[in-house]
Model the fold of this input.
Amino acid sequence: MKKLLLLPLFILLFHTLTIGQSGQNSWQELIAKGQYAKAIQLLSAKEDTLSQNNVMTLAFCHQKLGHLPQAKKYYLQLLEKNPQSQELLMSLAGIADRESNIPQALGYYQKLVSLDTTNHFYLKEVARNLVKQRKNEEGIALLEKAVKLDSSDIDALADISNLLLNETQESKAINYIKKGMELDSNSIKMRQLRARYAYRNFDYEQVRKDLKYTLSKGDSSVLYQRLLATSYFYLDSLAQSIFLFNRLIERGEDNELVRAGFGYALLAAKDQNMIIKGTQNMFTAIKLGTSEKISDYRLAIADANVRLKEYNWAAKEYKHIIDTYQRPKAIFKLAELYEKHLRDAELSKIYYQEYARTCQLEKSKKNIDCSNLNVALQKLNLAPVSKIYAQDVKGVKADSLRIDTADSLQVEDH
Done:
């Protein structure tokens, strides 16, 4: 039953309606040739135009021609006489989908579920429309039921895995990913989902294996190319990382995340020209970007200027970050810069004091970088504190593009 419902409704009618009928240019022949407009003309001229079979066929022809209001009108006429017809409800749900009328589509699919609670396809469609309304938990619950009804439906397994990853429920997602991989280890969808899971768990080698495979099969999704490029970065394969980021830009995928990823990969190189190119890409990412990661890009540029021995430019950049983004890490780095390179002990002490003061005042906040607090206190000949308050994550999600040149590189995976 569930497979039949996925076919165009007309296929169910065609064999029935053609029995005992023949003749040149019959509406059946016109439909078989895809000449739906002519079929409508012929059907409209028939004496029994309003018979149930003719109305059904007219609805089908209008739907094929994209005349959705007319098709819907005919289907609704038929539904009044047969309100529990699953075929009619499916056709109306399909039209609502094409019209992007989510509430209406949801209503039809929910009616279908009430008529057949064992049909996993209906459950999937209700879940899909609930997710469009941002009701992810309800969608996940229905997909779980759908998978129980048909554990061989790899699309349902992929859908629920994707939703669970989006909801950061990785421990549940991996169970469905494993089931999907058991059904088809070559499925591009399941490989991509496993790569997302592996990425979040820092298994960059698994990401590399899965996404190299999907790329070889023709997948060109920007997201997964970014994840692969980032994984190469962590696997110390800078050449491959740079190549992939650069290729995305050349193909027109020039956005904040790609530019920043390219910039970080270049900044990790030892060659001075590549470092300079990395800072240029970071400035481009800043121009393209609107995210909270902008201050991270600024920090990377400042750090690069230190490596390039452009100390005054670095100081200027750190000050800009402090004034604009209030990043404690920039205060600490500025203190180090004055101590080690600009040889200004007085200013260095002032910034170490400011860093310590900021960290101690803000210790109730989780997203303040005070990992270097004890270092600063030692510089000031003060007693170290027993607890380092928090690492600097600046409120950024675990799957975000946030790379400190000496620390980490992360790319959004959704």
Remarks:
- The CA atoms of residues 195 and 209 lie 8 Å apart.
